[in-house]
Automatic annotation (TrEMBL), chains A, B:
Keywords noted in UniProt: Magnesium, Metal-binding, Transferase
Biased segments, Basic and acidic residues type: 18-28
Feature: compositional bias, Pro residues: 1-12
Organism: Streptomyces fimbriatus
InterPro entries noted in UniProt: Isoprenoid_synthase_dom_sf (IPR008949), Polyprenyl_synt (IPR000092), Polyprenyl_synt_CS (IPR033749)
NCBIfam families named in the record: f2_encap_cargo4 (NF041169)
Lineage: Bacteria, Bacillati, Actinomycetota, Actinomycetes, Kitasatosporales
SUPFAM superfamilies to which the protein is assigned, alphabetical: Terpenoid synthases
Ranges for region Disordered: 1-28
Protein family per UniProt: Belongs to the FPP/GGPP synthase family.
Entry GO MF terms: transferase activity
Name of the protein in question: Family 2 encapsulin nanocompartment cargo protein polyprenyl transferase
A Pfam family assignment: polyprenyl_synt
């Protein structure tokens, strides 16, 4: 459900130690895939949004970055289209160009679901900025942001209900199931944030991240596989690939949330620590059983000055939180690759999926 | 999207002048239909809710009246099942018992959508009581009430995606379109409440009521027709029937909101006036061009004491708001009957639909 509020990864290509080995040209391949996905999906998305009643359309177009708050056209910036690109790459890997073309409408549906959750999450989390712009609720109010989110969920399922492809029914069922998992993930996230720093386990934090972030990436890949008429085992492998890649993505995003360069992330340094977020590196540190873990728990309970943030970050690092997160991200990426190799043994055919997975986890800290 | 917060209509059978003529036994027929719908749909609903992740399930079961806030079983009270009963009555009228049986899952989906909108509307409207119990957001907080609503919308579409009946795809498309219309209706309602008493026309108030209340009743009837394999014209006539009956229902509900007996409605007398709601009788009064209209506008702007409510109600009545609403409700019911007669010429077959429509509009003021 989360999306990085950082700048586009193309601006920060420096690889890190914890990353899977990079081959030259891969970043470029992912960028091309994302651009092609955007080009294929945007007309379907625009037509779907244009079908909304005027007030809902206005909020949606603002949220997607296609209109300013006053309704005048804006230059876009509707996210990086990672989820639609995964739908299309999965369809292509398992069924070639024909399956890719057939899956465009479903790719737009997945992007609509993603954006519905962003609209609602921003209301619940009181997040004021998204994609470098004021969030919809700050502009239109809570009620209209909730209603626009509701309408986008309906529009996503509407797109699939209007799709005569034989895979559309299974895709709709999977997407609806995924929405329910995303809701449970967001619930777990907000519930965990209300608990004390010593009351959260690493296992439940990982489960929350899988539900909140991994589920929709997995669903995107699985839906692509459905449009390629893949068998159950391949659909499951693609789902697992997306989930593992999603967890790797979340781990790296959490590392960036603590140690990211503010000039690149667009967020103040240590923003996640200032908000006392129980992100994955922090929970790993708190549950490490080290002396630094005890120090961190005390700091999380008492230190409230801006100057303390650097000390907290250092303590998370001393307790092993940063190393763990980077190693875990690499491990998840390795698992993701195993899953995709199971369903798509030809490395050439799997290339697009791997390039996208590496792209989302290859963001400079 | 609204649902009366009044007691069950069975307690208050006294007919009013503006109503269509009552035939003996009709109230009983509707009660039986509602009970039968509840009995058919509840097992599907319960199984669907039981499939939700624990935290979402808990909120949903509380909202449906099947659990107390602490998770212990409660005696029910999950509304009157009017919408599922309309789905089943429409299927039955056009396709007999076989179509009725086939439509049970779709009837549960319609009820889930209705309840998703109630959960979200209560958050937006800050309504603290629903079906004589504290609303979900007052018990679980805004975020969880929003998430539970999101999950119920997904669950509704999930039910239809898992339905192999040939009508399921068209039903899903119609239900998703209806959700979008409900969102637009709720938006119009909240937007109109923010405007001054002189800035709202009767036409837009009627359009809002149709989107907010009529749309889902129409959708319920149309979906029932789809499961009876009805042609486009009959589906459209059933949709129009539900919309007209829904408007009649809203008009009567608004009359009750002003002149209803608090012992029967469970709301304090004049609650809608105290909240300065721009309900249909009030807008009709305000736009009547009478001397009383001007008095009412002045009262709506200045009178804030509880003692003024009776005077405001009297002024709405003097400006013709009550008579107009009751005549309009009767007119809408007549149109509803014409629509149903077009699709179901046999009065015997149409009896269930007519009984339900009369039931929802036959509530004592």
């Amino acid at each position: 459900m989360t999306e990085p509020k950082a700048g586009p990864p193309t601006e920060c290509p420096a690889p890190r130690a914890a990353e899977p080995e990079q081959r030259p040209g891969e970043g470029h391949e992912a960028t091309v895939l994302l651009e092609r996905a955007r080009a294929a999906v945007d007309p379907v998305l625009r037509a779907a949004l244009d079908s909304l009643p005027v007030p809902m359309r206005r909020i949606a177009l603002y949220h997607f970055g296609w209109e300013h708050a006053d309704g005048t056209p804006a230059g876009g910036g509707a996210g990086k289209a990672i989820r639609p690109a995964l739908v299309l790459a999965a369809a292509s890997a398992l069924g070639g160009p024909e399956a890719r073309t057939a899956a465009v409408r479903a790719a737009a549906a997945v992007e609509l679901v993603h954006n519905f959750t962003l609209l609602h999450d921003d209301v619940m989390d009181r997040d004021a900025t998204r994609r470098h712009r004021p969030t919809a609720w700050t502009v239109f109010g809570d009620a209209d942001a909730i209603l626009a989110g509701d309408a986008l969920q309906a529009l996503a399922l509407r797109l699939l209900a209007g799709d005569t492809h034989p895979a559309a029914r299974a895709a709709a069922a999977r997407l609806a199931d995924c929405v329910i998992e995303l809701c449970a993930g967001q619930h777990a996230d907000t519930a965990m944030e209300r608990r004390g720093p010593g009351e959260v386990t690493l296992a439940e934090t990982l489960a929350m991240a899988e539900a909140k972030t991994g589920a929709l990436l997995g669903c995107a890949c699985a839906i692509g596989a459905l449009y390629a008429d893949a068998g159950d085992a391949d659909v499951a492998a693609l789902d697992a690939f997306g989930r593992e890649a999603g967890l790797a993505f979340q781990l790296i995003d959490d590392v960036i949330g603590i140690w990211g360069d503010p000039r690149r992330t667009g967020k103040p340094a240590g923003a996640d620590l200032a908000a006392r977020k129980k992100s994955l590196p922090v929970v790993a540190a708190l549950t490490s059983g080290t002396q630094a873990a005890a120090e961190l728990a005390a700091l999380y309970a008492t230190a409230h000055r801006k100057e303390d943030l650097e000390r907290i970050a250092l303590t998370v690092e001393r307790a092993g939180g940063r190393d763990w997160a980077q190693a875990e991200a690499a491990d998840r990426m390795a698992r993701a690759m195993q899953e995709v190799a199971r369903a798509v043994p030809d490395p050439e055919a799997a290339g697009g999926l791997l390039a996208l997975a590496e792209f989302v986890t290859r963001r400079s800290t």
